[in-house]
Amino acid sequence: MNFITPILIVGIIGLLAGVVLAVASILLAVPKDETAEALEEILPGANCGACGFSGCSGYATAMSKGEAKPGLCSPGGEETAQKCAELLGSGDVSVEYKTALVHCMGSYDNTTDKMIYDGIESCSASTFLAGGISSCRYGCMGMGDCVRACEYGAVSVCNGVARIDPQKCRGCSKCVEACPKGLIKFVPLKRQAVVRCSNCDKGRDTMQVCKIGCIGCKKCEKTCEDGAITVQDNLARVDPQKCTGCGKCAEACPRNVITMLEI
Amino acid sequence: MDGQTIKTLVAIFLAAILTENYVLNKFLGICPFLGVSKKLDTALGMSCAVTVVMVIATAVTWPLYTYLLVPGDLGYLQTVVFILVIAALVQLLETVLRKFMPPLYNSLGIYLPLITTNCAVLGVTMLVLEKGAADPSFGYLQSLVNAFGSGVGFLVAMVLFAGVRERLEECDIPETFRGLPITLVAASLVAVSFLGFGGVVDRLL
After folding, report:
1. Domains of chain A and any CATH numbers
2. Residue A80 class from Cβ within 10 Å (0-12 exposed, 13-18 middle, 19+ buried)?
3. What pTM did the predictor assign?
């Protein structure tokens, strides 16, 4: 009944393995960034990328290195920003809330379809056919890829154009990725002017396809006292950091394509 | 090393890939085969990790068996001891990777512990000993080459199947077959195709 030997052998092998592993974990230890780990615990863990970093662990690492400030996490909101700020000892922070915005007002009141489409009911699919069903080749086709992408019900299609409810938008950027025309972009959630058009064609061509599209006349650029709105490529663009929300450009616009984003 | 030995080694290496492929002929390691073969880069990384583990595991377990267990009449302890050693090795590999190759560690992260309980790794260590029992000239070196070949065979099978699966994504598959069923059917067809390699290695050399 020599069962001592096998037990001993297995036991010794196990012990040896344990010792080797213990030694290895000490010798080959990777210095853990405790701050980054603690920060990552606070963050929502959705890995949505709204902060601009590669997932929550990327943002936590950047914050602990001082490369990013708390408050960039839209889904986390005020609470997350406060907790991160407390951990980092950087005092109070205000969250830079963002909302996604559809830069197109091409509803059926303002534009038409250039074809009768009988295919897959998806914006990405219809883009392959001569640039989409909408007369304006930059514009929203209204087939709802963005609606389906949104998990919070913030996007809806009304009268052929998509619109986003800023109250429901969590800044997860799924709709931004879903739009094949790249019409959906983030804007800070504050009172500011937004140009709801993405048409870069010359004014005359734009007028032929849409009643409300930006023609690049530069009236807004001349009216703005802060230099926040400029026309590039026949399209007016607003710099949200400079815009004071005075509303003068919106009044001046002959096409009524500039609106004020109200919160 | 004379010409005959080299020939034998090459034969062993090729046989491990083509005629005795661990996934497609021996049907071991199906779990990672089906689980990780969705994307080409993860499949590649996983199979490289498995190859390393297979070689190191054989390198450690073969002398352990031949010089410790067999003389002591403890051949039956094979399974337990080998699992112990493989588990420890994989943990060690994980620690080493985390220290010296963080990007690789991050991309493979969760798959490494999966290799521990992978029957393909245990299979290599144990089946190589069976070969040694049947053929006395099948020694340490031959076992190592066999293990390396098995790893490469695993890699070939994974990469091939990843390609097949990527093509499957674009196909119009009936509702009942979507997901696992069609994957299993495709895997079995790939396995059948590998039967065509039967006899190639013997004729080659």
Report:
1. 35-88 (1.10.15.40), 98-189 (3.30.70.20), 190-263 (3.30.70.20)
2. buried
3. 0.57
